[in-house]
Design a protein that fits this description.
The chain is of the alpha/beta class. Helix 1 runs parallel beside helix 8, helix 5 runs parallel beside helix 6 and helix 7 runs parallel beside helix 8. The chain is globular and about 60 Å long. The protein starts with 8 loop residues before the first strand and ends with a helix.
């Protein structure tokens, strides 16, 4: 990787911090971010962002990170992706998914296979939960040829906000060469799977969510199976809560997901498990309606792996691009000088699956 010789890229603002750090690490280009929440009463990096920077520092070797006193300017000179066996305590203000999403981008390119234990909040209402990443991102990595028994995400303990207390294990083998993909036909939905989990509340909550989600989904197809996952004792974390995550799988191996979680203890009104189950089923139908071969949480991961593959053409069909993905494409252009050719599908072609 290029050291100090590479052109330093400069950005402003606190948005898309993870994208920038990940792409800087993969491309070996130093990075400077100014004006991080400079105008706010509490300026600078938040605890979860500082925690993310510490995580990047752990998985790399020889990174230089300089932050000014107020935390409003960050200079980052990437080192080598090293990997190995690690542990990291994530900040409870964001879920483990916030950190795991970026690790999924970096893990295949390490020097040694990554095996990391992350502790914190496993399911919340903001970031993709560990369940969803396990169900959607891992099959996506396999499509690019990153597989083997050492690719896994294992949930040892669940942790709900605000206190967390969850623990997961993420392991990923090293693959320097990725296969190009042609992934343009999503195919029809053949089955729906899911997990309804409850911690430190009555186990009946999970069953009630399953009932209500099935009442919506069974109108469309019979093969709906939702597991209930009630964790007890130490493996249930420190805060009560419940939630549901649903996965739709098509005949061509496209996996689309949706999830919802209850409000954290002491924040907002209590949610009925019936409503949660129903709303999550509707969210899944919404995700299916948008189409595409990769669901909206993993769009940027797919595009990144396409960028870093061999000099061969990869094609993927996406639903409507999320604002995060659009910004990601701009960043790919800045860091790697890679442009994607984007073709719009006409509505006639598009609506045949729905």
């Amino acid at each position: 990787m290029a050291g100090g010789g590479a052109q330093c890229l400069s950005f402003a603002g606190c948005n898309f911090l993870r994208q920038r750090l990940v792409l800087s690490t993969l491309s070996g280009r130093p990075l400077k971010i100014r004006k991080i929440r400079a105008k706010e009463e509490d300026p600078g990096l938040r605890d979860f962002e500082a925690c993310f920077i510490r995580l990047i520092d752990k998985v790399t070797n020889g990174s230089r990170i300089e932050i000014n006193q107020t935390g409003t300017t960050l200079y980052y000179q990437p080192g080598l992706l090293y990997g190995g066996s690690l542990e990291h305590d994530c900040s409870p203000s964001r879920s483990i998914g916030y950190y795991l999403e970026s690790l999924l981008c970096l893990a295949p390119f390490m020097k040694h296979p990554l095996k990391i234990v992350l502790r914190g909040v496993t399911n919340d209402q903001v970031d993709p939960s560990v369940d969803v990443l396990k169900a959607t991102a891992l099959p996506l990595l396999k499509k690019f040829g990153i597989d083997g028994e050492s690719l896994e995400i294992k949930i040892n303990r669940r942790g709900m906000p605000p206190k967390g207390g969850g623990e997961i294990l993420f392991a990923c083998p090293v693959r320097k060469v990725l296969q190009p993909i042609q992934f343009t036909d999503p195919g029809k939905i053949k089955r729906i799977r899911g997990t309804a989990y409850s911690v430190r509340v009555s186990p009946q909550m999970a069953n009630r969510m399953v009932e209500s989600a099935r009442s919506v989904l069974n109108k469309f197809l019979p093969d709906v199976y939702i597991y209930t996952d009630h964790m007890k004792g130490i493996s249930s974390g420190k805060s009560p809560g419940f939630g549901i995550c649903l996965i739709a799988e098509t005949i061509n191996g496209t996996i689309l997901s949706a999830e919802l979680a209850s409000n954290p203890q002491g924040q907002g009104a209590a949610v009925l498990p019936e409503e949660l189950g129903q709303n999550c089923a509707k969210l899944l139908l919404e995700e299916i309606y948008r189409g595409g071969c990769v669901d909206s949480t993993n769009q940027s991961l797919a595009l990144l792996l396409m960028t870093l593959g061999q000099q061969d053409v990869s094609k993927v069909l996406l639903g409507p691009l999320s604002p995060y993905t659009i910004e990601f494409l701009r960043h790919l252009r800045s860091f790697f000088q890679i442009m994607f050719k984007i073709e719009m599908k006409s509505p006639e072609e598009e609506h045949k699956g729905e």
